[in-house]
Design brief:
The chain has 308 residues and is an alpha/beta fold. It is built from 12 helices and 13 strands. It has 2 domains: 269 residues, Spore Coat Polysaccharide Biosynthesis Protein SpsA, Chain A (Alpha-Beta Complex), CATH 3.90.550; 32 residues, no CATH class. It binds 1-O-phosphono-alpha-D-glucopyranose.
């Protein structure tokens, strides 16, 4: 038998003992100010792309990646999210009486697909703070984070791609994608080392900066809202003071983490829509609608008729 290449052997050694990823944390306590007034009295996570709320896309991606435990970090005014994943006995009865089997199956599927639990972020003090609120739920295990604003349409779910990378590397991983230099100030920006010899989509993170100005930015490689984090992030978060916007930033905690553990960036495959932004939301709506079996053909005809 041929010897494995040295890189592969090193990977297996690094990976020895990497604990499985069993839980996804979904922060959902932000204000949604970019979508006012729609989000004045309803959570932004419940805005639908076509007919499915954003938070459901996030839960489905976790489930499709093999994760069964989902912890949603909620806050004031977010009750509709809990209702969405609850069993709705009355609605099920009405649909059953009317013989509406398709929607009945769909709403049953939603309440059964994952074990969803909730933790409360009592004050919206930032993404890092939201993750710290999930510490007791997560325990001493690596876990995934999915930000519902980033909807990713991919053949293999983005999180599943990252979990495969995690099995090889056994360390924290952030999803990454290049953005136009004019947009770097909207993201955590990565300075990466050389691409990994085993997989050029992976590169070690040498530094990260939250929402830098274009002149401060070390690159245009942005963190997109998917993370695999080791429990070491909680100790890092404890020491992280408020940063950009006066909020406790996850990016700042990752910057601390890389002082003690390797962190990798992973250039995922797939189309990503920033559904937290009006234009991104519109683009996602149009592109996902065009792919739908029940709507795509008619919608395409309609768009073509607009002769823009
Ligand atoms: C958050 C993170 C940022 C990351 C972005 C991805 O920012 O703080 O580092 O690049 O998500 O969408 P937010 O969009 O919540 O302002």
């Amino acid at each position: 038998m041929n010897e494995p290449p040295p890189g592969a052997r090193a990977t297996r050694e690094r990976n020895a003992g990497a604990a499985p990823i069993r839980r996804a944390v979904l922060p959902a306590a932000g204000w949604g100010t970019r979508f006012l007034p729609a989000t004045k009295a309803q959570p932004k996570e419940m805005l639908p792309l076509i007919d499915k709320p954003l938070i459901q896309y996030a839960v489905e991606e976790a489930v499709d990646s093999g994760i069964r435990h989902v912890t949603i970090v909620t806050g004031r005014g977010k009750d509709a999210i809990e209702g969405h994943f609850d069993v709705s006995g009355e609605l099920e009865t009405v649909l059953a009486e009317r013989g509406r089997t398709d929607p009945l199956e769909e709403i049953r599927r939603i309440s059964n697909m994952a074990r969803v639990t909730y933790v409360r972020q009592r004050q919206a003090l930032g993404l890092g703070h939201a993750i710290a609120c999930a510490r007791d739920a997560v325990g001493d295990e690596p876990f995934a984070v999915v930000l519902g604003d980033d909807v990713i349409d991919a053949d293999v779910p983005c999180l599943a791609q990252m979990m495969a990378a995690y099995r090889a590397l056994g360390c924290s991983i952030v999803a990454a994608s290049e953005v136009p230099p004019s947009e770097v100030s909207r993201y955590g920006i990565v300075r990466e080392g050389p691409a990994d010899a085993d997989d050029p989509r992976r590169a070690r993170v040498e530094d990260v900066v939250e929402k830098p100005s274009p002149t401060e930015a070390p690159s245009n490689l942005a963190i997109i809202g998917r993370y695999i984090l080791t429990p070491g992030i909680f100790a890092a978060l404890e020491e992280t003071p408020p940063g950009r916007g006066g909020e406790i930033q996850l990016t700042d905690a990752i910057r601390r983490l890389i002082e003690t553990e390797p962190v990798y960036a992973y250039r995922f495959e797939g189309a990503r829509y920033d559904a937290g932004d009006k234009l991104g939301f519109l683009k996602g709506t149009v592109e996902l609608a065009l792919k739908r079996d029940d709507l795509g053909a008619e919608f395409r005809e309609y768009l073509e008729s607009l002769k823009l």
